[in-house]
Amino acid sequence: MGWRAETMFGEIIKGTELSVFLEPWERGAQPDLFAVGDVLGGTHPNNDPFQLNVITVDQGVAVVENESARWKMNRVSRDQLKYPADTGDAPATHWVIVDKA
Q1: Where in the chain are the domains?
Q2: In a 3-state reduction of DSSP, which class is residue 67?
Q3: Cis, peptide link before residue 24, omega less than 30° from 0
Q4: Does the global pTM surpass 0.85?
Q5: How far is CA 63 from each of CA 5, 27, 90, rounded to the nearest angstrom?
Q6: Which residues contact 13 (CB under 8 A, 6 or more apart)?
Q7: Neighbour tally for 55: CB within 10 Å
């Protein structure tokens, strides 16, 4: 099992939107919340892979780190995303990078 982060953005910067779900996922399940120490892995639309290490997390705010910076992100509802990524029917939580941490 691993955490998948889907995005329509070409890089991790302020404003990047992420839809995060646990693979494999079960249809109809409630979305899980990742934990400190988890790694969120994904690919940008140009197929460049990325990884975000979870530093802190609570129900609505998380701090993640990639190779260039630590980022604060806020949990939002799917309808608050401007460019939602396709997660199929996977039960996902949705996040927006709001600033460097």
Answers
A1: 2-100
A2: coil
A3: yes
A4: yes
A5: 14, 28, 23
A6: 97
A7: 15
pLDDT of residue 59: 81
At 30-74, the pLDDT tens digits run: 888 999 999 999 999 999 999 999 999 998 999 999 999 999 999
How large is the average pLDDT for residues 82-97?
95
DSSP string spanning 55-68? EEE-SSEEEEE-SS
Half-sphere exposure of 58 (CA within 13 A, CB side): 2
Q: Which residue has the tokens 């910067």?
A: 13
Q: CB atoms < 10 A from the CB of 17, how many?
A: 21
CA distance 55 to 72: 10
Our measurement of the distance from residue 86's CA atom to the centroid of its chain's CA atoms, rounded to an integer in Å, reads 13
Per the CB < 8 A criterion, the answer to whether 55 and 63 are in contact is yes
